[in-house]
């Protein structure tokens, strides 16, 4: 089997990303993780309002979140809280539907002879 097109173009080496390409990857603990968490909020916003789409997200297009006091962390917390609430709502809906199914099955078992008379 011959080399793939990617191996030929890149010379069979892995890409090397600089801090210019991905500034958050070259930061230490708090800034890196806060920025990556903030990217969830950015992507959630782009799903809701895709007006600010960009073909190249390098060169600091999304500024690095340097501290926990940054106001953009509120957007991150709001997205994670929304996901948690939607998850809990989905779980409650599942249990409600399961309970409804069990009640209907019990009703059918109790009143099956009555239902046969009318159907």
Characterization of this structure:
This protein is an all-alpha fold and about 120 residues long. The protein has a domain at about 5-85. Helices cover about 60% and strands about 0% of the residues. The chain has helices at about 5-10, 30-50, 70-110, 110-119. It is elongated and about 75 Å long.
SS summary, helix count: 4
Largest sheet: none
The percent range for strand residues is under 5%
The counted number of beta strands is: 0
Would you tell me the structural class of the helices and strands? mainly alpha
Low-confidence residue ranges: none
Overall radius of gyration: 26 Å
Q: What number is the mean pLDDT?
A: 80
Measured between the Cα atoms of the first and last residue, the distance is 68 Å
Shape: elongated
Helix content: 55-70%
- Reading the helices and strands in chain order gives HHHH
Short description:
61% of the residues lie in helices and 0% in strands. By secondary structure, the chain is mostly helical.
For this entry, give a set of tags.
single chain, 119 residues, mainly alpha, 4 helices
Give a topology summary.
Elements: H1 5-10, H2 29-48, H3 72-110, H4 112-118
Helix pairs in contact: 2-3
